[in-house]
Amino acid sequence: MNPHRRSPLVKIAAFLVYFFLYAPIVILVLYSFNASRVNVKFEGFIPNFSDTIEMDGSIVKASPCGPFHWYCDLAKNDDVIDAASNTLTIALTSTIIATIIGTMAALALQRYDFKIKPFSQLSLYIPIVIPEIVMGIGILSLFSQLFGWLNSALDLSGDARLSLGMATVTVSHIAFMVPFVTLVVQARLQGFDKSFEEAAMDLGANEWITFRRVTFPMILPGVLSGALLAFTLSLDDFVITFFTNGPGSTTLPIYVYGLLRRIVTPQVNALSTVWILIVFTAVVALQWIQSREQKPTAHS
Amino acid sequence: MSTEFAVELRDVVKKFVTPEGHELNAVDHVTMQIKNGEFFSMLGSSGCGKTTSLRMIAGFEWPSEGEVYIEGKAMGHTPPFQRKVNTVFQSYALFQHMTIFQNVAFGLEMEGVKEDEIKKRVGRALEMVQLSGMERRKPRQLSGGQQQRVALARSLVKTPSVLLLDEPLGALDLKLRKEMQLELKSLQQQLGITFIYVTHDQEEALTMSDRIAVMSKGKVQQMGTPVEIYERPANKFVADFIGESNFLEGKLKSISGNEAVVFVPILNAEVTGMPMAKDLVNGSDVTVAIRPEKIRVVENQSGAGVFKAKVGTSVYIGSDTHLYFDLNGTRLKVMEQNRISSLDPSTFYVKDEEVLFTFPPENTLILKKD
After folding, report:
1. Same structural domain for residues A13 and A120?
2. Whole domain around residue A224: which residue ranges?
3. What does the buried/exposed string (b/e) look like for A62-88 if buried means 16 or more CB atoms within 10 Å of the residue's CB?
């Protein structure tokens, strides 16, 4: 028997994998154009503005946005805009800080020997393997203990009291993002020949110029993919954010969760679609950077 | 302060700790004086300490003991970017994200050379290595040989007083390597820069160098001109590492000046040769070293200095024939040039046939047994 002949089971398995991967997304996107206010049955696309339609028993004029009615609705929803801007602010801030810390950690782990190095390396995996909910509870406990203690020690009261909010969400995001950035940059550094740095120094560059002109540009693809990975993780994060957010720091996942508890309108689908687009773009960018990175060099 | 030496290593030791926790002298009390304008090679197999020595001159490593001097100045912990030496790396270490021009210009930029001056000097450097017109390319768009030249230009454009080369031709194929050897040598003579060249290839070292330091186990085994090293190896290691040698065991009978008489049991005869160590004592065990090409096959001759052996195998390699004689159980290698054109050279030497051979005493070296 030809060992290379593929069993039809392979095709079926592949179909099932892709079906369960993409069908929910397709349906989700489809429902964001649903003519019904209730998100359980697809009743056709929202017609154009000129038509009048019957919606939930009453005759209404169709939306000026046409099929994109729910998207327009979304844009008018201040809570969504706030949640989106919170999400992006947190994601950007934490990505920048986590990328800097993570890259420095990767460089330190690669080039220096220090007593707690095995411990540091191991610590990188802890936030990855620990269940997010455990980490979320842990961070929450830490913050409430710390804030309780600080508030009484500094005698803060009223608005001055330290409490959960944007800062706590950002800090906890940084905490779980750093290991991802470090591991990605470490992978990039694995093939990094130290003779590049030696060559730069040999040609008269001091340590800082060597880093800025040679090391950093060479590891930049790794740093960027680490940053993008961290960014998408932050955009998506629900569990840790759920425990560490406070008034005024609602992110999109938290907001959607709140909506779902009341009523599921196609607005949620519209929001999810926009969101998928953003994350998908980031992932494509990540793939593109990684494929560029893997181009072979002539002499290696 | 002017000094005769471009680079000097004084009693330099470099200690490393092995993964098992042992301390190891990668470079073990090495002293070298490299003259201005000299093409100096450090030759040895991997792990002999040659690259570590070079890296200590460049400033990538600091000696555990001893001192490195460049142009008479003790270097101490001077960082690489403050040393007047430049390195050509085995891996070339070209900056992949920069063009060829940017690579070569990098060192001048660091010196703060003005832009138009940089342009001029980079142009000249690339011309010197025959790469004009490649300025805008990226390193990975060039062949191995071209990348090697860029690495050379990048170092030479800084007009260093000493150029350090760490097996720069290691990644090239044989033909290109031979070409580059001659090119490097003529470049060095033309520029008058001191070259310190690290290689494991003895032929390369012999071809290019003014002087060679043969290294093994962190120590300098012998330092001298190519001819000295080949013709007058200081010990068995050098005799074996540079070229090939047949070693026969013997007992020293007498020694006077440039002549030593040794009884060699396997030949059942006394052999005269050149003593290569000063502290040889009558009656001590010694090693007689004979180069394969110094042995001559003779016919119908007898008397002192002519010995009998049996033909083992003969290998035809084009320019030469390598013969392996069986000398009472010991293998003796003999090299003969194929002076006569023949389509079937195997007829000259038939296996198990008896042959007579001789070797002149002035080509026989008497070494200390180790």
Report:
1. no
2. 77-262
3. bbeebbbbbbebbeebeebebbbebbb
